[in-house]
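ok here's Glucosyl-3-phosphoglycerate synthase:
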Amino acid sequence: MSSVSVVIPALNEAPTVAKVVEAVLADNPLEVLVIDADSTDATAAEARSAGATVLNWREILDTEPIPGKGESLWRGVAAARGDIVVFVDADLTSFRPGMVNSLVAPFLNDDIHLVKADYVRTFGDHTTGGGRVTELTAKPLLRALFPELSHIRQPLGGEYAIRRSTALAMPFVSGYGVEVGLLIDVATQFGTSSIAQVDLGSRSHNHQSLEALGSMADVVATTILQRFGHDLPVVQREPLGIH
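and the structure:
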């Protein structure tokens, strides 16, 4: 049985992080690491009280952090001890016990390297309608440029699992392009059959402004276009395995 590390990137998520940690701990992973990106609220205290190991991202690796979610994930992989690393967003309001185990189950097949969560995204009081950057930016570009990945229903979803050995060999985009970058890179190196999906029901989280979503869409689009071969600047960390 593979050991499992859960990595939760967090920046000012005090209202939700404890519930996420509690749900994750119910699945008895080897460790739950909250990577705190210099939060100015009670994120670290809430996560620690819920039972997580909290690491400030500056404690991991001897290099100054680059702003962005992908940086926290990259540092989380460096700190993790498990064979499988499960990433979970800290702002979820719908994460339930059993979801980590569901994400890990496909790794019984040795050919699987990445497992993406599939779910319906809620929006406010509506049961659908979330994931605007996914639907309006990521999916159209993937259909056009990487049609072999068009079946991935949540390419930007923050809940997914990866073999740590695979993660160590992958670059990590420092910002919000990290998920789609890993998706494309794993498919390129190991084939689309190395990627599985599991149904986790619905996902609810805090919604961001159109201005914030516009910045996210820029990074996601640039990452996809750069992976396709365009000479575009993408801020990313090189694979940890090369050090």
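+1. The radius of gyration is 16 Å.
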